[in-house]
Amino acid sequence: TIKACLFDLDGVIVDTAIYHYKAWRRLANSLGFDFTEHDNEKLKGVSRVRSLELILSWGGVSKTTEEQELLATQKNEWYVEMISHMTPAEILPGAKQFVEDCRAAGLKTALGSASKNSMTILEKINMVNLFDAIIDGTKVSKAKPDPEVFLKGAEELGVKPEECVVFEDAIAGIEAAIAGGMKSVGIGSPDVLGKANLVVSGLSEMTLDKLEDVGK
Ligand code: G6P
Ligand code: MG
Q1: Which is deepest, 3, 24, 30, 191, by most CB within 10 Å?
Q2: What residues does substrate bind to (predicted)?
């Protein structure tokens, strides 16, 4: 039986992908090149350091480790400025309701995100108190598809991996759930997230009945 739901943040609870894209694009432009929204898909669920490596490779630009640190810091300053204006209106449709439904049904809830800015965002959208555990980029050393972020969540909640369902919009996140021995629900397109036990277009489509089916 399912005892807990673990939620990714970017692309599942809020759509911050557009802010990450704007900030990375500004950085790329400052280095003399550009990249598309299509390329940006490859950055979803990917850590800050790894995202920069990918973007630099797209632009054919090479930088030393020290330079890369400065560039990642610059991008994050722009990103933090943008998310500082976020409000609860930016919660994705149905997301808050479904997390509340889970809690009302006696399930535990956790956040499992690669972002070091998770707490800032949860505070801005007023959802800090809806999670029994918050595992973010400041608490993990191995990025998705490594299951570390979700296994730590299960541990903090005191449940077994097989009692958890992970909600993810990134293929790396679904792979992390599978590697951790958990069930998963993909948020997005079945073409991309076909490995998940169920795919829905958003949490507004999710119900406790569907969750029960995933647990069977
Ligand atoms: C999430 C996003 C990625 C982002 C990563 C790190 O996984 O989907 O686009 O790069 O978090 O976020 P941060 O806020 O720490 O730079
Ligand atoms: Mg995501």
Answers
A1: 24
A2: 8-10, 24, 43-48, 51, 75, 113-117, 144
